[in-house]
Design a protein that fits this description.
The chain is α+β, with helices and mostly antiparallel strands. It has 20 helices and 21 strands. The strands form 4 sheets. Strands 4, 8, 9, 10, 11, 12 and 13 form a 7-stranded mixed beta sheet that branches.
Length: about 650
Amino acid sequence: MSRAGRPSRTNLDALREQARALPREPGVYLFRDAAGEVLYVGKAKSLRARVASYFGAEASRSVKLVRLVREIDSIETFPVRSEAEALLLEWNLIREFGPRFNIQLRDDKSYPYIKITVTEPFPRIFVTRRLDDDGSRYLGPFTDVGAMRRALRTIKKMYTVRSCHYRMPEELPPRPCLDYHIGRCKAPCAGLQSEADYRGMIDEILEILGGRTGVVRRSVEQRMAEAADAMEYERAAESRDVLRGLDQLESRQAAIDPRGGSHDVIGFAREDEGGSVCGIVLRVREGRLVGRRIHYLGNVGEEADDAVLGALVKGFYLRHADDVPSELLVPEPFEEQDLVEEYLSGLADRRFRVRVPVRGPKRELTRAANRNAAHVLARDRSEREEEPAADRGAGGVPPAAARLGEALELGQPAREIVCFDVSTLAGRESVGSCVWLSDGRPHKDEYRRFRIRESEDGKPDDYAMMQEIVSRYFDRRVREGHPLPDLVVVDGGRGQLSAARQAMDAAGVSDLPTVALAKREEEVFRPESALPLRLPRTDPGLHWLQRARDEAHRFALQYNRTLRRRRALRSRLGEIPGVGPAREQLLLERFGSLDIIRRATVAQLTRTPGIGRATAASILSSLRPDETEPGYKSGDASGSTSDSGSGEGSRAGPF
């Protein structure tokens, strides 16, 4: 790259040569800058044709492409067997690296989910705001929290789902609990309900929560009739109560399709040219609206509407592959629509269709989805406190900052807020995070993450972990003379608050206002008060605290998952002959997952310092024993690697 930010003629010619040497087969390509950062991830039916198009005359017609080409320093490619496989790999890599030239899909993290622990022999059902990669089913997110909780209460009255937290059958109580004696549980813990009977009950609940009440109603009516014929009136009464519960649930759902169809409906809205984009997924089952999901798109820039819609559809359904409907209604055609239909039909094991209705009730549904998205954007503008200066109060201070200063008796508005959180899984890979919000908006340059030292006994201690990360953060902040926040927030209760205050006292910043925000009741704990403060649910100051808490949790959980993936990668690589701890670490720094290593070529692996061709071949033969599989290459053939470096030790980076 030249100092002016434009690629030199020599480098541009080299990139064109690399593109012409690529294979004519499906695959995924990555563009990197001179520092090795991933700029863009794309997929292609023909790698040679698609990559070469970036360096032709057509690319100069787009401002975004001109900027991208100026920064490209090297190209990585991964040939695959089909376009469908490339589609999935592309989105996995976008999620992994978050390239700044790709459209990014982000969930709205503020809404709860219903979690069903289907991996357990006797699953539990409860509400959560955390999405863990543990094999459980998550339904939601739910925007109408009150309606969700009412529906869940109705279902728990209809069915005897256990409320205990025992890890059955390894952990069992000495005797059935009170729920058994009052008829709310059939005591599977005591062997009074079989696993098959309990699992059948969970299957019906999943159908109901998925909006498919008709199937369950017919099954329950048949059971009630059979029980009545057999004069088993108690069992018939149980089925009758389930039918009454179904009536209550259906009466609360909005009937929006008079023909009783079942489909998803997608709409979206954008604020302005290059502004925020919100996507809405309406879930209609048997003619009734049973749920709504909200997603945001970033890095949209000047992308056309069909490209935005395509990114929304692909990003959403590739991440929610367990809940694919038979039909999707969209407001207009989008990029790679046929490929999405083919791929999702294979996932769902049934025909999946994308339709663009032009008239009638289905057209009204797409318009309603677009209106929903526009409404969410308007709500977000209000919550971001982007009012005119006249509405901001003295000095242009956001009302939420002024409200926090008043409610917490800070003596000044709380415009600069830091929040701490810890994340651990059974005491392993314990990490901490610190996020900084400036006037309610993330200031990501000030985000920090911490790898927490393991305790001597190996047991996690939430208070000690909080004290450690707060101490490390402020010790360095004071030592280097960086600005301090107006308010410090910790995720937790009084114990976490006390631990944080001890660390701050030792660091010499005891004068900074500090509070803790507890999740269950959203109580605010303060050091100087014995009683927690409860702000109104509509209080803008509370919204800021929740936003900081949720962002800190997201950032910590993301780091925890990264370390867990690396641990899994290290354990698998350690079994390969010739790969010791040092090489494990080097591969870990250059690659993101075993799947990406498995798709790499020998030449790509040998660019990792210390990995020669023999070791690279050994790694690939261990990770994919069937070398005859089509679409995979084990050498330099076809130009499937195209970094302009000389090979061994050319660059450290994710690949």
